[in-house]
């Protein structure tokens, strides 16, 4: 059994997609990050970094219970556990390269673009421009790569496509636009359509829908999401 510590944001969505694709049995454990539940001791015992997603595999290697945190590490762990969505052995270096491109570039720059456009105080034009331009550059790199291929790695659907899907699904918020956010990136748009055609994608979107996550962006939420912006309690 996999225990998935989840909040409806891009990185946990990737894991929900894998679990729905693979058919692995899992238990959803909501972590309301807007209420600060990620900072509670019980969750820090699962992920010391206080971020979702994280998993506990109650049937890990040798029958041991293991924890895994960070979405890329989880995708790799689950893919290796099941033997699914890893591509060919020959493609492994390419798979790792694109997974880390997303983990260290597309994902974090998307997150910072969202933060400085939607959450940070006004007047930080340099930061807004910096992260918008960088995410556009990352989109272009991946779009160019997909010009003559259906999937990111090899000839089959892999965890690299799942990882990209998690963040590309939020492109309108990342680029802060009401227009088609991927209009300038037709190959990314095609990749998204390819993933969306899979029944597991719709099921992944429904994960957590029956839990009432906090949606009000008040002072409690800001302190929970951005604790480093505030002085430590006396």
TrEMBL record:
Pfam families: GST_C_2, GST_N_2
Gene3D superfamilies the record matches: 1.20.1050.10, Glutaredoxin (3.40.30.10)
Domain annotation GST N-terminal: ranges: 1-86
InterPro entries from the UniProt entry: Glutathione-S-Trfase_C-like (IPR010987), Glutathione-S-Trfase_C_sf (IPR036282), Glutathione_S-Trfase (IPR040079), Glutathione_S-Trfase_N (IPR004045), Thioredoxin-like_sf (IPR036249)
Top-level taxon in the UniProt lineage: Bacteria
Domain GST C-terminal: 88-216
Entries under PANTHER family matching the protein: DISULFIDE-BOND OXIDOREDUCTASE YFCG (PTHR44051:SF19), GLUTATHIONE S-TRANSFERASE-RELATED (PTHR44051)
Name of the protein in question: Glutathione S-transferase C-terminal domain-containing protein
């Amino acid at each position: 059994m996999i225990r998935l510590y989840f909040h409806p944001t891009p990185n946990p969505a990737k894991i929900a997609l894998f679990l729905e694709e693979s058919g692995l049995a899992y238990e959803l454990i909501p972590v309301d990050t807007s209420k600060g539940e990620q900072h509670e001791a019980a969750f820090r015992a699962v992920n010391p970094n206080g971020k979702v997603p994280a998993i506990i595999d109650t049937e890990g290697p040798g029958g041991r219970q293991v924890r895994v945190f960070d979405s890329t590490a989880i995708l790799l762990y689950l893919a290796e556990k099941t033997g699914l969505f890893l591509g060919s052995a020959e493609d492994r270096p390419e798979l790792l390269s694109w997974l880390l491109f997303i983990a260290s570039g597309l994902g974090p720059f998307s997150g910072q673009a969202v933060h400085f456009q939607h959450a940070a105080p006004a007047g930080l034009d340099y930061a807004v421009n910096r992260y918008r331009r960088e995410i556009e550059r990352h989109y272009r790199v991946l779009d160019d790569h997909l010009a003559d291929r259906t999937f990111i790695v090899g000839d089959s659907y892999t965890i690299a496509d799942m990882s990209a899907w998690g963040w590309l699904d939020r492109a309108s918020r990342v680029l802060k636009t009401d227009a088609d956010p991927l209009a300038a990136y037709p190959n990314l748009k095609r990749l998204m359509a390819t993933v969306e055609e899979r029944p597991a994608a719709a099921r992944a979107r429904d994960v957590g829908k029956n839990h009432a996550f906090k949606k009000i962006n008040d002072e409690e939420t800001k302190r929970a999401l951005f604790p480093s912006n505030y002085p430590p309690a006396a």
